[in-house]
Structures
1.
Amino acid sequence: MTRALALHLGVLRAALRRMFASKLGGLLNILVIGIALSLPAGMYALLQNAQGLVAQLSGTPQISLFLATDAQADDIDALRKQLAAHPAVHGAEFVARERALEQLKQSTGLADVIVGLEKNPLPDAFVVSPKQGNAQALDILRGELAQLPGVELAQLDSAWAYKLEALLEFGHLAVLILAVLLSLALVAVTFNTIRLQILTQRDEIEVSRLIGATDGFIRRPFLYFGAMQGLLGGIMAWAIVTASLLLLNRPLGELSQLYASQFVLHPLSFGDSLSLLLFSLYLGWLGAWLSVARHLSQIEPR
Amino acid sequence: MISFTQVHKRYPGGYEALKGISFDIAEGEMVFLTGHSGAGKSTLLKLIAAIERPNSGSVLVNSQNVGALSGGALPYLRRNLGIIFQDHKLLFDRSVFDNVLLPLQICGFDHRESGKRVRAALDKVGLLKREKTNPIALSGGERQRLCIARAIVNRPAILLADEPTGNLDAAYAQEIMAIFKSFHQVGVTLLISTHDVSVLQDSGVRRLTLKEGVLQ
């Protein structure tokens, strides 16, 4: 067992040595693979971030009920009772117009403007949390609540979030198509690299066959080479994506501050990173395997 | 050890290299295969190593029918043979040592054990001091000896040599014949092809003579 392991490690070492023997060529290949993979991986990372943002904003869908600015305490009480009795309503929080103004002052930096106002322009409001979260039920509930006496406007807070989510779905599909295409490119690059290697090592392959090498023995270094090249390309892609996200975070931080929110791009998660590396390793191996299967049989000793 | 029965070999294009060859070589025997170039000597050796397959008749090596071996079994047949190629087939991208190491790597030998074996084989052919040299820097005679070292490092029971003294002057040729005789003394079965009859005059060894694909 340890002997078999030592043999495999030996082949792996030889494959790595071969890769770094042609420094520039090997590096260029890894760079090409890295860039090709970084495109879908980077887009995926951006989408994941956007999705996180959407989930954060629309996590608990709410319906805001705005009352008329001249609503009296009696009206508010009556509405509160009606909401509590409504079967589809989970809870309702009353936001007094004074409190709403205070929040606006604190969270947006518009304090100067607000101080300058003659009177509070905001109405009283109820923030209603519904029992059911799906889009259709929410829409029906919103219609019902709009009909209640004293309600001026009923607004579904997360409507835009649902639209964005649909857009992200579309983005995911685009990433998938891109990933498939560029994976094919990676397989093709490896295929060609291995083909050239087989050609330059024709003599060694022929002699090895003549002195009793099995096909497995001849194939192994090429497969290891392909897998290693894929893995290093994957690491390169990961580095490109991570560095780009970090680089984008700075201007993005300034931008999001203008909108009074704090939004940072998160790098690829551990699971996603691992998937990226394993996938690129597998693709490299696959390209090498296809190439070896196609070209080794053409070298027969004479 | 090696047994040919009514072996025919025709190459694509119709050239008939061997026409109904039959002979037996016993274990531990040393046999010379002579004849002019083009008489079929190389073809005969290639049939033993299954580099070529016979069109009819049977080639037995170690009572295995070599002509009918599957591709998967071929490597294991060849590991029992030491082959000295007419064109040497040395690898110039590695040292003398690594050339001899290759058969042991193929068989999956332990690293330390194979180092000892390689040095023993190089010592046997007198190339121990040149283990780090690239074979491109070796003379014709030295390359031939390197080829022998690679063929015997695996300690095969059968040694096949195709024109091992081909381009060498008489002194070198005698040297190489002496190496072969020492293998014979330790029980290796040898089949050596040569067109150069002068190197065998003194020896009382058995000769197979091929002429236009027929044994004389």
Note: Chain A has two domains: 10-57+162-298, 60-157.
2.
Amino acid sequence: MPPHPETWLRVTEAGLWCEPGGFFVDPLRAVDRAVITHAHSDHARPGHRHVLATAETLALMRERLGEERAGGTQQALRYGEALEVNGVRLWLRPAGHVLGSAQVCLEWRGARVVVSGDYKRRPDPTCPPFEPERCDVFVTEATFALPVFRHPPAEQEIARLLRSVALFPERSHVIGCYALGKAQRLIALLRAAGWDRPIPLHGALARLCALYERLGVPLGPLPPATVAGKEKLAGAIVLAPPSAIADRWARRLAEPLPCLASGWMRVRQRAKQGGVELPLVISDHADWPELLATCEEVQAPEVWITHGREEALIHALGRRGVRGRALHLIGRAEEGE
Amino acid sequence: MPVAAGMSLPAFAELLERLLFTPGRAGKLALLRGWFDSQPDPERGIGLAALSGELRLRTAKPALLREMAAARTDPTLFALSYDYVGDLAETIALLWPEPEGLTGPPPALSQVVGALEAASRADIPGLIAGWLDALDAGGRLALIKLVTGGLRVGASGRLARLALAEWAGVEVGAVEEVWHGVAPPYEPLFLWLEGRGPRPDPAGAPVFRPLMLAHPLEEREAAALDPAEWCAEWKWDGIRVQITGGPGGARLWSRAGEDISAAFPEIVAAARFHAVLDGELVVLRGAEVAPFSDLQQRLNRKSVTARLQRDFPVAVRLYDMLFDGAEDLRGLPFAARRARLEAWFARSRPARMDLSPLIPFESMQELARLRAQARAAAIEGLMLKRRDSPYLAGRVKGLWWKWKRDPLTLDCVLMYAQRGHGKRSSFYSDYTFGVWKEGELVPVGKAYSGYTDEELAWLDRWIREHTVARFGPVREVEKTLVLEVAFDAAQRSRRHKSGFALRFPRIARIRRDKPAAEADGVEAVAALAAESGAAPR
């Protein structure tokens, strides 16, 4: 009988610890050996001695954290390529969350765990799609684990944005979005919808967009928003971090119309906070149907939930005969998006 | 505006959501113009009726929708979702299970309205469920709001008619004059506005005539006026109304043209005449006009109880006459209309109405003195009307002036600041200020106007540099900045910790020179409240 994953993959203060392998997955503080699912700051912390991840994640970590803090030694692993670490077999599968994002698949003495990190099932032109891997324990997040969260097709939200630009041609539509992943996906979606004009960027987004381009994701012309005159920004779609869209930075824009791209925009009360005038429901996290469908596809009799709305997901899995368990991992971005 | 995919209900849902999230009037007008532009008849008219509150649908109770949703969902998940979302209609809209496979196209507004009209009571749940199955989350929320009768998107009927006028390139007055003679979906109105049909004839139906409005008068402008050319009246602190009476029935209209008859049945009952009159609705006790706070008890109600009618008796103080019988007097000079009003009033003696007296004066100095002495709570100042002015819709400069009495002022200390909306969303532009009470600051009011752009920029910077705590969008600041706050009256109130509320407070000056310890105390507010509540002199 293979050892139950509870006996060899455990929640410690530093995060999820694979005992026989001697490494952590997405540890919360600096450790000796870390496997990193993706480069968002609540998963990729600075200062580990040895880091294993996809080449793209490692490049993004170097860009965000600097060469020294991104890991003493960095080891790249291709999707689907397997390693043996002290008898634990380890391989990565695409998670479809952001460029470089991966599920960490672990197998020890015949028992298999998949730590999915953050993921989504919708197509994303900036990263390869999620690949389900059959397993005994599936470790998932539950950011949007309530049946009220069903993200509409992103293309539909982009069409709404473009209708608004046509209706308010004298204003700048400024979209608040995360610098890593969401910004590049929005740009790619806009390009796919035929928006080939320059997309002015807030300074905080520029470097990561440039890196995406070097990693082979074309994004088109992205001038800095700071140098263009107000009149040039009339009718433009501008991208900025969420904190900037309704603050002093936005005064340089032409009558800015604040938009926010996030799965939280589904709920009006959430969207009303912070002066958003055009909420766009575009998320890089799985929504409720995606969470349930994924848990079913991987056929795991047991699902561990790292953070989010565990209660609803455990309840729904229970009704499907799957045992759900809340890990209560601290340090994950509660409102992550 | 490019139309949202397909039928009109999804497009209407998008309009509703945009209106809800758009704080600025200009933005709302643009959204509404886009609606009239993009939608065919009768959809655009039904949307207009829904926004104007004139769509009379056989409505469903929220409890029915809750039942329908509960029958389709897991109770634990429903409870967790409702707990998270907080709003029942929104929870149902988001949670409603989307059927597998093909569903029909989403319904048009006209389909929903038509089917609900024809349906028997027992058919209604099935109809609603079928539509919910065919809509996305936004469409479902719009449908639920429609059938439960609670749109609430911050777009009034007046705003919708203004957008309609802008869209058609006509004066809003032209729309108002025919508005109450047309019914949803207003096809003859749209045909006329598009130049494809005749002007709808309101015939005998009671319609609202747009009001003539006044400009504020400055002290130095007043001195330059020739007293022989002007009439003066008190400016009463009530609400402006129009009374229309005639063969088609009587109505009471608000300043914006909303029909407020149901809230003031005693006025409508008294309007047994054929005329259109302009005046001020006030609470009248004997001959004395009660403070505005009394009138507030009667405002914004759909209907009224006998007790409210008894405790807050309303009357209209008349000051102009637009129609005498079927005769349109609006082209006559003010002095001639006034003579007609007085003669008509002497003849008809309607209940619950009196005449706002003209104030005799020889010189502008004398008038200025009268204004300065007026401290009765019910008097806001003076109205000056040119003897020769015709009755013109809107705010025409130089014919009517409002000369408000000087505001009261207090030196208050800035306590909290909040960011504004729309163009001001990056500025801390809403201020809560307080006065001293037993060595402690207590809030006395909130203001978000009165300052110049430069002062706003300065205040914004000061607030960011002197923040001591944050609560969501609100910043608490160091209690060191004194603001001179101007306001029209002070009233006792339980809503503020200070025990007082200020009417129309605005920032008059930033008193950087004044130490916070020297700001006013609650005794100063009490003294001003006593003064503004005093009997007329």
Note: Chain A is about 25% helix and 25% strand.
